Each structure stands twice: as structure tokens, then as C-alpha cells.
């Protein structure tokens, strides 16, 4: 029994795996004083693979017979995962030097990117579970990376227990689907619905799978892990979690629901609308009293997940195009904000909002990037977040008017807590007026994220066209 | 006659026992063991479905082996984190780790 | 003569009753000391010194952890070994890569001192 494997389509994964193994071997054999090169090698390696992605855009198909589908959506999300990996390995070096176990961090970061790449292409229960667990378990290790920190250990054990339980629930739902469809493939679930209709076992399995995925995207009844894990993890790891993990989880969530339940949309759309509404409301309202920047960004990212969930409700591929566009824009803004937080925490050791006072006097570029990123997340017009929210909310105005109105109101509420940070940064006086010098890699990261956020806000067409081309595959 | 329903009922009961253990126990190791019980319930489900109604092939058993391997890796990581917890606070009772709230 | 289920039931009852009988006999026949001092725990004939809950050495845990991970690797090696002839070159190369990645893990554990026994 030989399986049909198309190696051309698997080149990005093979390259990322080789990079991970190379970094691991180098981490073992280089002497202590040369270890800094591993960080640069990780960033350059991931950048090289990212530059291969536009070439990979042309080659789509089924890479492993029935189990691993490389289509334009998968390539888009692989590129997003690589981008998140590049930015995180660029901002991490100085921070990780203070924590210790420097080179293993980059090995784990590369393997996390591999897990995300496997997850977004999965069309089989086993591939889905393996990609999901590779990504999740590596993130658990990265969360508890600071060994002398009780907060890090607390965040790590909370993430471990909750992720373990939600994976078990997801897996139970998948095993019930296996019982219904008798194969491990996702597309066969749609055939079962056509033949047998909706049975109670089907609804139970669907709810279990929905619970498992909703945990990963931190939708509201399943969001309790996100603030604690985001606050307790080292800041570059939080940046990676907030961008890469969410993007990959949304990709597989959408793929699963559209491959498995295409014809019965009216049954699960109401449930997702309720989840989206709850997530937006709770995320935004609980972010208001937060005083810790990382925790506030965690609640704001829960609210962003609520906005993205709205994209599931649109009637055709416009919803998914909006999701892809918004996830890219959100990645840029989040990386910008967390890069500033990383540098500031490395220099001063503080992460409360009031300790960012007067950042504009100490480092104008950091203040500018922080402001641009936060306003983009709020959805203020000339920035990319506004274009993203427009693409997301416009298709649902006709059928889900109440949800669009709620989203607009909650966006306005979010402007309050973002602007509060902007005020502290620009209006208050700093305690210590020494200017902050930035390492080159972080300087370039900040400039690139700010430039992309501003340019995409004014001229979103290129990215929108790419997202549209990719989303067309769901139009069947 | 032992039918598929018996196995699935046992699997559901095991899953519920595991879930109860995760939600109510204070010792971190007991919580990890309860997570393992939940994953083993899923394994039982997969293998029983493969034996009784699966299409010819062994995919249920194959997936069960992979789930066992992933669960082992997760518990390895979990025990590492528990050691880190113990080094920081001299206790592994989850009630003591409540700094991160609201 | 007796169905298999009946045999299992008799085994179960016998085991259950046997344990109960042994415990009850122990209670009835053992000498009971009248004073409280005779019932205290002792260590080599004298009073106990130090806390009675002794910590186990960390090395046991590290060895157990490395054993579990390589045992799970072995689970994957068994089916391949059974069907080695049929599976051909592709499976061989793939298993060499798999074992190679795990050897890297072993190298890391060795270098970080997880296999030391102090």
C-alpha cells in the first residue's frame, strides 16, 4: 500500500523541518560565546523560506493522498505563520539573553512554525490533531520558559491543563465523527449529512469539535486561559501566541466547518453569531479596567477574535477573504505593539501601563509604533484595521444587522482603552529620561510593521486581491 | 452480546470521570492523570469503532497509537512544568497558584 | 459444567472473601498492647530522627522521563519491524529520519546531564 506523495508541494515544510534540525544541532555543538548567531540564523532561515512562498503560490494540490491539502488558503496561512516566526525571532534575542537557555528558544520557535504549517493544510483528523498538538505543546514549553518565575510556571500549568482538556474534548468529537463517517477524512462528514440527515450524535460531535476549536481562538465561554497565559509568558512568546496561534486556529476552524458542514449552515450559524457577540462584548468590556499592558492586549485580542468570528457568518467567500485580510493586518499591529513592550520590559523590567509614561520623550519611534498599532487595532480610518473591519462587517449588515451594530458599538468602546495608553505615552512625564537605544533587528521590525499598517490602510487592494484569490476555493 | 454501544458507554463514563478529576482536584499531578484518563477514553472509542463498524483498514487503531504518543509527550512537558512550579513555591497545590486573576 | 461467567464469579468471590477472612483473623488473633507507648513507631529500636517523608532523588525522575519518551518511540518501531520486507526503501529512509530526530533528543538529554547519576 503506497501513498501518493507530491514532494514539490511539501517543500516549505521540509525546509522548515531542516532549519529546525540544523538549529538544534548547532545549539548542541557551538560553544557558549558564539550562541548569538543562532538567533540571526533562525530569522534569516525563516525569511528565506518566506521568500519562497510567492513561488509556492502557483503550485496547489493534494500533497499526501487525502490527508494534506496544499491550496491557496493553506499557502497564505503558511506565509502568515512564517511572518509571525520571522518577527518573533527578530525581537526575541536581547530578551532571551536575560532568561537563559537562549538557543533552544529559536529551535522551539521554528518547530512551532512547522506545527502551524501542518495544521492549516490538514484535511484528515490525524493530521489535524498532530499539527494542533505540535503547535500547542511547543507553545506550552515556550510559555513556561522562565524557570525562576512563579508567574511563568503558573501560566504554563494553566495553559497545559486547559489545552490538554480542550484537545481531549476536540478529539472526542472527532472520534464521534469517525463513528458516523467510518473514515478519518473531513470531507466525508458532508456526505454523511446528505445521506442520513442530522442525528443527535452528529450534533453532539459538532458541539464538541466547536468547543475544542473555540478554545484555541479564545472565544468567550472558552477564553479564560488567554489573559493569564498572555500575561505570564515571556513577551516575545505572547506576541507569537497572539498572532500565529490565532491565525492557524482560525484557518483550520474555517476549513473544518466549510468542508464538513457546507449544506447545513443554518444549524451552526446562530451558535457562531452568539459566540461572536459574547466574545466582542466580554473582551472589550473587561479590557477597560486592566492596568497591565500585556493583560489588556490579551483581552483586546479576545475581542479581535470576536470580530473575526463575524466573518464566518457571511453568505459566500467574502467572509473568508475578510478573515484572511484582517488576520494579516492584526498580525502586523500586534507584532508592533508587543515589540515595543518587549524592548521596554527588557530595558526597564516593567509592564504596567502607567510605567510607559513619557515613552515619546525616551524613544519617539517606539511611541509612534505603539500608537499606530493600537489605533489600527481600534479601527481608526487611515490605518489598516479600519479597512479590515470594513471588509468584515460590510457583508453581514443585510442578514445580521444587530451583530454589525453591536460590533460597531464595541469598536467604539475599544477606542477608549487604546487611547488611554496613547495618552499615557505622550502626555505624562517619564521618571527616568534616558533615551532608549534599539537593536537593529527590532528597529527594522518596528518600521516594517508601522509602514505596512499605514500603507494597507490607505491602499488595501493588493492584499485584498490575494485574499480574494485564495478564498475563491471555498466557492463551490 | 457485547456491542459497540457497551464500549462507547464505557468510553463516555471514563471521559466523564476524567473531566471530573480535572475540574475538582488540587494536586497538579492528579489533574494531569485525569487528562490522561480522558485521552484514553478517546482511544477506547476510536479502537472500538474501528473494530465494529470501520471500513476495512486500521485507521482507528493507527490514530489511537498517535494519540498515545502525543499524550506521553504532553505529560512529559507537564511534569517539567510541575518541577518548575515546585522550585518556585515549594508546593504543587493548584490553589496556591492564583496570582493571575482578573 | 459451569459457564465461564460463573467461574469468574466464583474466583472473584473467593478472592474477596479470602482477603476479608485474613484481615479479620489478624484482628482477632493479634496481641493487643495495653499501653500507648508500645504502639509508637520506632527506627532501629530507638526514637525516629528527622522527618519521615524522605524525598526521592531527582535522578529517578529524569531517567523515568527519558525512558517513557523512548518507550513511545519503540511503539512506532514495532509495526515497521514486523513488516520490514514489504515496506521497502521509502519506509526505511523515513524511519531513519525518525530515529535520527530522536537521537538528537538523546544527545540533548545527555549533554544537559539528565543521564547523570549522582
UniProtKB/TrEMBL annotation, chain A:
Q: Which Pfam families match?
A: Proton_antipo_M
Where is the protein found, in the record's own terms? Cell membrane; Endomembrane system; Membrane
Which UniProt keywords are present, listed alphabetically?
Answer: Cell membrane, Membrane, NAD, Quinone, Translocase, Transmembrane, Transmembrane helix, Transport
Q: Where is the NADH:quinone oxidoreductase/Mrp antiporter transmembrane domain?
A: 122-411
Q: Where are the transmembrane segments?
A: 6-30, 37-55, 75-92, 99-120, 126-145, 157-181, 201-225, 237-261, 267-289, 323-344, 365-388, 400-419, 440-459
Complex and partners: NDH-1 is composed of 14 different subunits. Subunits NuoA, H, J, K, L, M, N constitute the membrane sector of the complex.
Q: Which family does it belong to?
A: Belongs to the complex I subunit 2 family.
The UniProt entry, under NCBIfam families, shows: NDH_I_N
**Protein function:** NDH-1 shuttles electrons from NADH, via FMN and iron-sulfur (Fe-S) centers, to quinones in the respiratory chain. The immediate electron acceptor for the enzyme in this species is believed to be a menaquinone. Couples the redox reaction to proton translocation (for every two electrons transferred, four hydrogen ions are translocated across the cytoplasmic membrane), and thus conserves the redox energy in a proton gradient.
Q: What is this protein called?
A: NADH-quinone oxidoreductase subunit N
From TrEMBL, chain B:
Matching entries from Gene3D superfamilies are given as: 1.10.287.3510
Name the top EC class: translocase
Per its record, the protein catalyses: a quinone + NADH + 5 H(+)(in) = a quinol + NAD(+) + 4 H(+)(out)
GO molecular function annotation = NADH dehydrogenase (quinone) (non-electrogenic) activity; quinone binding
Q: Which family does it belong to?
A: Belongs to the complex I subunit 4L family.
Query: Which key words tag this protein in UniProt?
Result: Cell membrane, Membrane, NAD, Quinone, Translocase, Transmembrane, Transmembrane helix, Transport
Please name the InterPro entries in this protein's record: NADH_UbQ_OxRdtase_chain4L/K, NUOK/Mnh_C1-like
Write down a Pfam family by its short name.
Oxidored_q2
The task this protein performs is described as: NDH-1 shuttles electrons from NADH, via FMN and iron-sulfur (Fe-S) centers, to quinones in the respiratory chain. The immediate electron acceptor for the enzyme in this species is believed to be a menaquinone. Couples the redox reaction to proton translocation (for every two electrons transferred, four hydrogen ions are translocated across the cytoplasmic membrane), and thus conserves the redox energy in a proton gradient.
Single Gene Ontology BP term? Answer: ATP synthesis coupled electron transport
Location within or outside the cell: Cell membrane; Membrane
Q: Which GO terms describe its cellular component?
A: NADH dehydrogenase complex; plasma membrane
Query: What subunit structure does UniProt give?
Result: NDH-1 is composed of 14 different subunits. Subunits NuoA, H, J, K, L, M, N constitute the membrane sector of the complex.
Transmembrane residues, as ranges?
62-83
Q: Which HAMAP family match?
A: NDH1_NuoK (MF_01456)
Membrane topology, from the record: Multi-pass membrane protein
Name this polypeptide is given? NADH-quinone oxidoreductase subunit K
Enzyme Commission (EC) number: 7.1.1.-
Q: Does the keyword Transport apply?
A: yes
TrEMBL record, chain C:
Keyword NAD appears in the UniProt entry? yes
* Location of this chain's protein in the cell: Cell membrane; Membrane
Keyword Ligase in record = no
Could you tell me what reaction this enzyme catalyses?
Answer: a quinone + NADH + 5 H(+)(in) = a quinol + NAD(+) + 4 H(+)(out)
Q: Which UniProt keywords apply?
A: Cell membrane, Membrane, NAD, Quinone, Translocase, Transmembrane, Transmembrane helix, Transport
User: Primary place of residence?
Assistant: membrane
Transmembrane residue ranges: 6-29, 60-81, 87-110
Report membrane topology. Multi-pass membrane protein
For this protein, the Enzyme Commission number is: 7.1.1.-
What Gene Ontology molecular-function terms does this entry list?
NADH dehydrogenase (quinone) (non-electrogenic) activity; NADH dehydrogenase (ubiquinone) activity; quinone binding
Q: What class of enzyme is it?
A: translocase
A Pfam family annotated for this UniProt entry: Oxidored_q4
Gene3D superfamilies linked: NADH:ubiquinone/plastoquinone oxidoreductase, chain 3
UniProt-listed InterPro entries: NAD(P)H_OxRDtase_bac/plastid (IPR023043), NADH_UbQ/plastoQ_OxRdtase_su3 (IPR000440), NDAH_ubi_oxred_su3_sf (IPR038430)
Q: Quaternary structure?
A: NDH-1 is composed of 14 different subunits. Subunits NuoA, H, J, K, L, M, N constitute the membrane sector of the complex.
What is the documented function of this protein? Answer: NDH-1 shuttles electrons from NADH, via FMN and iron-sulfur (Fe-S) centers, to quinones in the respiratory chain. The immediate electron acceptor for the enzyme in this species is believed to be a menaquinone. Couples the redox reaction to proton translocation (for every two electrons transferred, four hydrogen ions are translocated across the cytoplasmic membrane), and thus conserves the redox energy in a proton gradient.
Q: Which family would the database say this protein is a member of?
A: Belongs to the complex I subunit 3 family.
Q: What is this protein called?
A: NADH-quinone oxidoreductase subunit A
